[in-house]
Amino acid sequence: MTSTRCIRIGPLLRCDTKPQFFALLLFNSVFIHSALGLNYGGSENVDHGSYNEVQDVYEEETYSAPQMDYKNPRWCRTLSLPNGEVACSSPRGGGYTSTLGTRCLLSCDRGYRLLGRSSVQCMPNRRWSGASHCRKIRCHVLPLIMHGAYSCTHGFVADSRCDYTCAPGYQLEGDRYRVCQDAGKWSGIEPTCADHEPPKLKCPLSRVKVAEPGKLTARVSWDRPLVKDTADKTLEIFRNGPEPGSDFTAGIHVIRYKVYDQAKNRAACKFIVRVEVKRCPALKPPLHGYLSCSSDGNNYGAVCEYHCEAGYEKRGTSTRVCQFNRSWSDKAAECLLMQFKTDVRTAAALLDQFYEKRRLLIVSTPHVANQYYKLQNIMLQRAECGLDLRHVTVIELLGSPPREVGRIKGSHLDFEVIEDLRQAFRISRAYFTMVLVDEHGVDRERFINPTTSDELYAYIEDYLLTEEERERLEENRDFCE
Ligand SMILES: *[C@@H]1O[C@H](CO)[C@@H](O)[C@H](O)[C@H]1NC(C)=O
């Protein structure tokens, strides 16, 4: 025996022959969509492989058949409804479920919907007045959600429960699950997967750098900060501050980074670059000399060179370097008074040695017992350091021949030299005189009375010192005290 399966397509019913599955009920030129196992009274099945128009079906008809037998317990075929229930009541009693006139109520199991009539009657033509079947209740296919998925206990049929999950980094918002309900509708509303988790941003460690040798800056590099986001793969990072590999000046620099994920969640981090300029203690210029230093004078790597003023000779190393451990290399150089030769034969030979280097104060007295000289001598002894600071060498011409003495500090001068000096600067032996000679050998001032050191200094400073010498003098003014 074959049966026919019919599928409704719009207003049409398409039927295919399928053994044992479906039966097509032909009734009053009307095709009835037959339910599984719903048998009808006719002995033969009608097969149709074509489209047939569906009209109003299942109208109950009353027939007057010639030989009606109300006692036949099998007037109509036994009614069965897969996935459903048939409850019949016969005029003849409960046991007669297929007698003529039996009325049956059809209902479907949970999860099934009745298609067709809910009540049929066994008719005189030995057929049931209608056909029905139970169809599994289905909900529509749940759409996929962005950044998420769902899994269902029984697909999209009634009572199936679909649980939603979100991709890593996303949080579920809304109903966590939806159930396919009896009416074929999903419970709840579609949830969404949202990214509320900010990315993770890790800045490099803060660092302290020492300015490079001979510089007040340090070049500092670092790796890009590490960024991670559970949801997004590629993230754009923004920097606020100098780029890696920049030269940083001394002090504290804050470098900030921030990042946004695609959901505009923000993360930020910062780190500090501190640049330290290592410095040595400032060097003091040597007495009678000065320093010239590279870079910033006393920063790490700075080189200082010692120079001596005219008339002074350098002793010791001429350059010192400020080292990493904040100490200077080597020892300070000294500027020592040049050594003059006093055993020369002429005044010219003597004066040549002082040319452009030293000034001379020639003190002449007829006798060491001279009152003016004695007074002046006391004052000059006290002024020795001050005169030296002003580059003045004292030459004494004392007494008269044959006991005449000429000397520079303890060194005696040749008689010829004394005579030459007296002539050159026109210095009489008859009275106390002091002559101040500049560094070019020109006599600039004469003193015939004892003169205080302050007066001498004032004169030298006002008329003889160069601008540069005056500046250095200011720096060392206290030296002699
Ligand atoms: C500083 O370092 C130099 C060499 O780099 C060393 O000779 C000197 O002793 C150190 N000075 C101090 C104070 O540590």
From TrEMBL:
InterPro entries: DUF4174, HYR_dom, SRPX-like, Sushi/SCR/CCP_sf, Sushi_SCR_CCP_dom. It holds the Pfam family HYR. SMART domains: CCP. The keyword Transmembrane helix applies. One of its GO terms (molecular function) is signaling receptor binding. Residues 76-134, 139-193, 280-335 form the Sushi domain. The keyword Calcium does not apply. This is Sushi repeat-containing protein SRPX2.
